[in-house]
Amino acid sequence: MKKFSLLFIGVLSMSNIMAQDISDAVRYSLDEVQGTARFRGMSGAFGALGGDMSAVSINPAGSAVFNSSHASISLSSLNINNDVSFFNGFNSSSESKIDLNQTGAAFVFNNNNENSNWKKFVLSVAYDKTASYEDNWFASGVNTRSIDSYFLGYAQGLRLDEISAFPGETYTEAYSEIGSAFGYSNQQAFLGYESYILEPLNDSDENTMYSSNIASGTFNQRYNYVATGYNGKFGFNVASQYKDNLYIGLNLNSHFINYERSTVFNESNANTGSMVSNVRFDNYLSTIGTGFSFQLGAIAKITSELRLGLAYDSPIWYTISEETSQYLSTIRDGADTVVINPNIVNVFPDYKLQTPGKITGSLAYVFGEQGLISFDYSRKDFGNMKFRPTSDIYFSSQNNIISDNLKVASTYRVGGEYRYKEFSFRGGYRLEESPYKNEDFYGNLNGFSLGLGYNFGNIKLDLAYDQSDRTVNNQLYSVGLVDAATIDTNNSNITLTLGFSL
Fold first, then answer.
1. Does the N-terminal or the C-terminal CB of the chain have fewer CB atoms within 10 Å?
2. Record: fold of 11-501
3. How far is CA 396 from CA 5, 16, 317, 339, 391, in A?
4. Is the pLDDT of residue 11 over 50?
């Protein structure tokens, strides 16, 4: 029997967690080139250079390169362009947004004791937006697989009395009680059954087999995807200079996630024998998370021109909360409309995610006052990501999927700067390998950047433009309707930074 525990506030706490999967883990583990205009103008190749607030987020020793206290603030304009193909359909979309993506300050304390090998001590604090989740695209095309496969995938093997409403019970009551007693899978089967998409083999409570009231053939499908939010961190840094040639540093970071996603799926068919001709399926996800990580780094001056950098980023240990809501409507026999709008927010128990750690090696050559060239190499094993608790059966299966499908991914960044009087001219290139073993599913990222700076003395003004491209096959659903829309994404940014000596 279903558990009678209607929550009048419309919030449901469920024991079965079914919303998290490998795509969530990857989303919260990717790095983006965010930060100051100088940093972005050189594609983030700053691990052996320092002397920039965003460089501190790559190598904590970078703050010790400052000769005096420094602060900066950066505004960025993000532009996203998506070209989407889905079977025979092709669509394009674009979106723009302006926001604050970096601010921070480093306070330099010089050691006046000439007999000490420790030349200076630096404390800094900074905010960095580490990822943007702004995205908006839609896919449309003619498919031979229907959304019924999604609901059938969840329903098969479940008892009819565990996925259906009691006589006189509202959809809201039934959806809430089924979720409380049996979890997310049963809720999906409930939606399919009560909307007449699913037909039980027989009407007994013990029935566990279902067929579809949507006949085979072709299906006109449209899928709208809208996401907002960002991933950011507040970092506390301590660094020091030892003698003239060694800089060391430590970062303690507090991370946060704010992510919202809304999808709307529409399907229509005119197939002979279809009882259900139209389906609309809406899903909403809200994610909030907090986390902690630390970083260790060092920069060594091998000669007055040559510098080496090495940094270690610990995993980020996240605690994440998620909420979902759903809506489903169908048109039956060409006239009757069935609407299932539970008005229920599914509140999942908090779960933990451990992202992979990272090692970064850097090399830079400084041509006196004229300019520099820099190279960074990073290595991150995405197969080491873990959902916790690992004793949870579902999380254990997801962790196995992660280790089977993800791999070690390398990132290469190269940047250069040329100075002429008060002007600085910059450029860079980066390549980020796919975290997936199947790179046809999730491609590599390629990007380039250009930048310009002007030194007013105690004040510096920097401007940068960077662009990146990646192709991803985005599965519409993880169960049943697993067909993917191919998305060619082009992200471009214009960043303006005001820096000044304190």
1. N
2. Porin (2.40.160)
3. 29, 13, 17, 36, 7
4. no
